[in-house]
Automatic annotation (TrEMBL):
Domain SnoaL-like: start-end pairs: 5-123
Gene3D superfamilies: 3.10.450.50
Pfam families: SnoaL_4
Transmembrane segments: none
Organism, scientific name: Streptomyces milbemycinicus
Listed name of the protein: Nuclear transport factor 2 family protein
InterPro entries per record: NTF2-like_dom_sf, SnoaL-like
C-alpha cells in the first residue's frame, strides 16, 4: 500500500483531533481517534496499560482537574509499514491549569478501518531530560 497525500493529511488530523477532544471534554468521542480495542500504554507515567477506548475515556474522567488544559501535538512523522499500517511519531506538549508544561513523545500505530484511520496502539513517553538522556 502506498500512503497517499490524502492519507497523510487524514492521519495527521486524526492525531491532532485527540487533543481537541480531550481539551473540550468530549471523551465520549474518542472512538473517532482510537480503535475500539486500542492499547494505550502510559506505563512511563507509572500507570497501567489502558485497553479499549472506553478505558481511555474513563481514565480521562478519573483524572478530572489533573488533566492538562491544553494538549498540543507537533513534529508528526509518518512511516508507512509493509502491512498497511502507519507508524506515527509525534511530540506532545501539555499545559496544566497552573501554567506549567510537560513534554512527551507519542509512538502510534495507525490502521485503516471501515470508519477511516484510527490509532490502534499508542505508547506515551515522558520527556524528562534533554538529548534523550
Amino acid at each position: 500500500m502506498t500512503l497517499t497525500c490524502e492519507d497523510r493529511c487524514a492521519v495527521t488530523e486524526l492525531i491532532a483531533l485527540h487533543g481537541h477532544l480531550c481539551d473540550s471534554g468530549e471523551l465520549d468521542r474518542l472512538d473517532e481517534v482510537f480503535t475500539a480495542d486500542v492499547i494505550y500504554d502510559v506505563t512511563d507515567f507509572g500507570q497501567e496499560v489502558l485497553r479499549g477506548v472506553e478505558a481511555c475515556a474513563e481514565a480521562g474522567r478519573a483524572l478530572g482537574e489533573l488533566n492538562p488544559v491544553g494538549h498540543h501535538v507537533t513534529n508528526i512523522v509518518l512511516t508507512e509499514q509493509t502491512d498497511g499500517r502507519v507508524h506515527a511519531r509525534s511530540k506532545g506538549i501539555g499545559v496544566r491549569a497552573d501554567g506549567t508544561t510537560g513534554s512527551l513523545t507519542y509512538e502510534d500505530i495507525v490502521v485503516r478501518v471501515d470508519q477511516g484511520w484510527r490509532i490502534s496502539h499508542r505508547k506515551v513517553l515522558a520527556r524528562r531530560v534533554p538529548l534523550g538522556g
